[in-house]
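If your schedule permits, I should be very grateful for your opinion on a structural question. Thank you for your consideration; the sequence and its tokens are set out here:

===
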Amino acid sequence: MEGEPANALHGLDRFNEGQVLRSLINPAQQRPWLPPQEPVMPDHLARIAPEEIAIELAIAAADTQQTLNEKRRAFAKANHPDGFAAPFRDDANRRMMIANLLIDEAMRRLPRS
């Protein structure tokens, strides 16, 4: 329209134009109409029986202190409670406690050198 500032965007003043542009750039504002998604529990966190965790750890008579420590680290990497949403941390913590007990027991049974 004649007499309108060149920077106007369909009747929006400069401030509103900036808000519109920021909302297009800011991912949090891109889809404000979508509700936040509920976290989904990973399937492995449902396995909290010691027998199930023992199978996952695959502790064998041939394991050494080094291999048991590697299994502990790998299990912790995949199951540490800090890596999960709050609703699933209790199960992750339970899995970690059981795995640590199983590995500690296997270490106690290692031959003394």
